[in-house]
Design brief:
79 residues; mainly beta; OB fold (Dihydrolipoamide Acetyltransferase, E2P); five-stranded mixed beta barrel; 53% strand; globular
Length: 79
């Protein structure tokens, strides 16, 4: 049983909106290199549910974890 507290929330930028009811969101994070102690930018892309196709490429969005919607979609747009 999960509550709202346990759901992962991320923020990123829409990089693709070619699918129906789905957008691809790139989430960037900074990690420190274990040996050189320099911060590097790592990116990951998520397929996100976008009902009514409201978001376009370049929009900044917040996404949250939801129950699986399809094979690849595990997130939905919050705002």
């Amino acid at each position: 049983m999960t509550t709202e507290k346990n759901k992962k929330t991320l923020s990123g930028v829409v990089v693709s909106d070619k699918m129906t009811d789905t957008v691809v969101v790139r989430v960037d994070r900074y990690v420190k290199h274990p040996k050189y102690q320099k911060f590097m930018k790592k990116s990951k892309k998520y397929s996100v549910h976008n009902p009514e196709n409201t978001k376009k490429i370049g929009d900044k969005v917040n996404i949250t974890e939801v129950k699986p919607i399809s094979k690849t979609k595990r997130f939905a747009i919050v705002d």
